Amino acid sequence: MKYVPVSVLELAVVSEGDNAATAIRNTVEVARHTESLGYKRIWLAEHHNMEHIASSATAVLIGHIAGATAGKIRVGSGGIMLPNHSPLAVAEQFGTLASIYPGKIDLGLGRAPGTDQQTALALRRNNGYVEYDFQAEILQLQKYFSTNNKFSKVRAFPGEGVEVPLWILGSSTDSAYLAAALGLPYAFAAHFAPKMFKTAIEIYRKNFRPSAQLDMPYVMACVNVLAADTDEEAEFLSTSLYRMFLGIITNERKPLQAPAPLPTIFHNPEVQQALQSMMYYTFTGSGQALQRKLSAFVAETGIDELMMTSHIYDKAAKLKSFFIVSEVMNNQIFNPI
């Protein structure tokens, strides 16, 4: 089994009793910590009109984190939701980021707005259906980054000629076809949309066409990972994650809560089914347990990179979780002899 690098997805989630400023500081600490442990990249996700997520101004936060780290870890978007922005604005923002931090910035692109429809209209008022032009907008974005755009009347400065690797984000099969057709790396959101994951990556690999950016398919899967000294402790920490997803299902969203026994509604069969459909790729346990679980996942799917999101309430426990996973990496768990 090939070596698989490990990366991190962060949303700057606000924990109960904290605020956005604290969430951002904690995200910087996660970035520095995982960089010191050898993680490949940290991505920030764009969400809007969500009271307990502080990553709405994603490009700003990417710049903040890139400036706070040592340059060994890549920083990027997982993703920028292209329906909310003009391609020119994205090219200028990420051209600026890549000019300040050359060779360290990634641009992952999503086709959903990352919010409700009313908020989406407020973000980009003149085009409520832009997501259906996703491919055309990606091509326009590539043109702005290209030196071939130098004769155009509209150009991106900074941006033109700047190296900013593009990724296609997906949670369905539509994105798989697009990533394959454009010859771009493909990142799948299996941490909340696992149902179509295997089908999507099969479609992507089967239909992939080489491009100037990429000559072979490259799949990154994002999953939930929570590690602790013991399986029991990891399972207890995961109750915060379960409560977060319960809030999504019941539309009663709250700040990330401390681990605690789960409420009665958790055991409702319909709720269990909904949770299973969203959290299928959730891996918890000690390092030994994760060695077994994650190795099996990598072998089964053949992914090229593993991205993990770890919604753990206690900051020290969260940092320790990343450390345990790094030990799993260093012990060649993802590259066994």
TrEMBL record:
Luciferase-like domain span: 9-242
GO molecular function, one term: oxidoreductase activity, acting on paired donors, with incorporation or reduction of molecular oxygen
GO cellular component, one term: cytosol
Xref: InterPro entries: Bact_Lucif_Oxidored, CmoO-like, Luciferase-like_dom, Luciferase-like_sf
Family statement: To bacterial alkanal monooxygenase alpha and beta chains.
Entry-linked PANTHER family: LUCIFERASE-LIKE MONOOXYGENASE
The protein's name in its UniProt record: Luciferase-like monooxygenase
Annotated organism of origin: Haliscomenobacter hydrossis (strain ATCC 27775 / DSM 1100 / LMG 10767 / O)
